[in-house]
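Q: For a teaching handout, I want to show students what a protein-ligand complex looks like in token form. Below are the inputs, and the small molecule is cytidine-5'-triphosphate. Please produce the holo structure.
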Amino acid sequence: MSNKRVLLIICGGIAAYKSLDLIRRLKERGVAVRVVMTEAAQRFITPLAAGAIVGERVFTDLFDQAQEFDIGHIRLARECDLVIVAPATADFMAKAAHGLANDLASAVLLATDKPVLMAPAMNPRMWANQATQHNFSILQARGYHVVGPNAGEMAERGEAGVGRMAEPLEIRDAALALLKDGPLKGNRALVTAGPTIEAIDPVRFLSNRSSGKQGYAIAAALAELGADVTLVSGPTALAAPLGVKRINVESARDMLAACETALPADVAICVAAVADWRPSAAVSEKIKKDKSGVPAIALKENPDILATLSKPGKKRPKLVIGFAAETNDVETHARAKIVKKGCDWIVANDVSGDVMGGADNQVLLITQNSAEAWPRMSKDAVARKLAAAIASALTAKAPRRK
Ligand code: CTP
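A: Here is the structure, written as tokens, with cytidine-5'-triphosphate included.
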């Protein structure tokens, strides 16, 4: 990491003292760190302390002529590989979500074209507040990476809940994952994972048993190779892999909308178990038992995300990959699916055994002109092998297009 540079924005929260350790941890790995502190941050730790650890001056003032002539906010924003905001306070997230730029930290954030990693830290009620959650979802949808916040004791006596800043080592590891150069550096990947849920009424839904494990493993493996990964996920119990942007959705229609927003991408991998149908009538009130006996639920077909992403056009990813669960004639069915969906590759699971929900998988990788049976291996190993195949296809610049 000796050629990597991080711009660390420290905001005003009690967790700011941990940012001093974060600087040390990043430097241990050879990452050059430059620090910007907000005015509120300077109430918790001094620029002198941060400057001593970082080994250079700390930047604090947008309107200081000396600082502006020295480096200036535009250079600060651009001369780095990653911007980390730690701690990211509720106030700073609100400013960032709405594009305010009235101090050096917010102006730098608005001016940067680099990836941003935020480590939120605040009181649990402030974190849970609708305003903060709304701002957080805006930042996530904009592609900001997030680490934490964690659950635990707060600095305030007797307070506990979600809001603690992630530990310096966690933030460092998330940053290293984003800084890593791999064969997929510079490539954008879109992965769908998990089930979708389709509302019957406000309290009931149709769904399936997908755990999301294989899709999450693929997102993680692509990020490991340096790709900029967006994971559009239905509800799962899994944590977002390091360095991966996760967009949470519920229905198939939401998943499609999130995927379309995430484009352009170089590769799209549809691993989600999208519900094929949804209740055709959107019922806004809970269906009562006493009305007219057992209700009939009429269904309507959901959009096919894989087929939609595969449609020829300017926004079509260079490589579109689908999954297919088959119990027999795996290759024949998978080839038919390539044609039906218009995708480039199909990863066909043989689900005749105990693959569903388990830790292992057995797949056949079908491309336009080859079929490769992979031995049974863990879902993580399948993910790494698939990520390697994607890397060689994208770097060879010769994936077959429909
Ligand atoms: N898929 C999708 N959107 C849908 C349905 C499926 O993106 N509405 C994607 C899945 O993510 C997967 C592939 O399409 O990549 C699976 O296709 P599907 O036709 O659902 O195949 P199977 O689940 O194998 O079902 P079947 O064999 O019954 O067609």
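A: Two things your students might notice: Residues 188-397 form a domain with the Rossmann fold fold (CATH 3.40.50.10300). The two ends are 39 Å apart (CA to CA).
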